[in-house]
Amino acid sequence: MMSNQEPIYVNGRLFLGRVEEQKAFRQALPELLVPPRGETLPYVILLYGDGGIGKTTLARRFQDIAMLEPPFEGSYQALWLDWEVEKNKKNPALQVGREHVSPEAVFDALHAEALRREWGRH
Q1: Fewer beta carbons under 10 A from the terminal one: N or C of the chain?
Q2: In the chain, where do the E strands start and end?
Q3: Which residues, in sequence order, are CB contacts of 120 under 8 Å at separation 6+?
């Protein structure tokens, strides 16, 4: 049976597979719009895994889903941070093996990027 769905492109390249991951992400998105009582902080979604398994491409696909697909379009903001790029900025806290990157280093990098984007209180 053929699908009438248009091909999906991420960064100008055909995106195939990861169907279950996309389905799970779409199911999780509505829950993020209604935080638990008393919770006001934004959610952070982190992808991790061994190098070369397509995390960056999958993350870009997730961003497209959250930012561009109905019914989510306009409901989310995305702060893109690629660790390979961050490590090359001569940040010693990130120039270590993945298992040695501290939570503080992760939050410091996210905070610095948010400030660069002028997200201030966010």
Answers
A1: N
A2: 9-10, 13-14
A3: 114
SS3 13: strand
Q: How high is the mean pLDDT in each 10-residue block of the chain (122 residues)?
A: 76 92 94 85 78 89 95 90 81 86 89 89 64
The pair of structure tokens assigned to 84 is: 């390979």
- Residue 12: name the closest of 62, 57, 74 by CA: 57
Residue 81 phi, psi dihedral angles, 5° rounding: -140, 120
In angstroms, the CA 122 to CA 118 distance is 9
Four-residue CA torsion sign, 117, 13, 18, 55: negative
